[in-house]
Design goal:
92 residues; alpha+beta; 13% strand
Length: 92
């Protein structure tokens, strides 16, 4: 569940929203330790982590991840997905 309220926050004059999140105990402890070590607020640490996560390049699909490997093996069937005999009973 996410609750959101608009207000002015520590991000300058830019309006911000308050978002409530639920964390498992282990993640909450890691957040608390990071806040203490960095002498920052929870909001600052969470905002920075969220910005870094959202700015990271998308991993993409599995096909994109292994696209350079597709068709690199010799001796197998060229395309199992189009061979109806090999797909018989698949997914049941």
């Amino acid at each position: 569940m996410v609750r959101s309220d608009r207000q002015l926050g520590n991000t300058g004059d830019m309006p911000v929203r308050t978002v409530t999140i639920k964390l498992p105990d282990s993640l909450a402890l890691r957040l608390k330790q990071t806040v203490a070590r960095r002498r920052a607020t929870q909001s600052e640490v969470i905002r920075e982590a969220l910005e870094a996560h959202l700015a990271a390049p998308s991993v993409g699909s599995y096909l994109e991840l292994v696209g350079d490997l597709a068709g690199s093996l010799r001796g197998g069937a060229p395309d199992l997905s189009s061979n109806k005999r090999r797909l018989k009973g698949f997914g049941r």
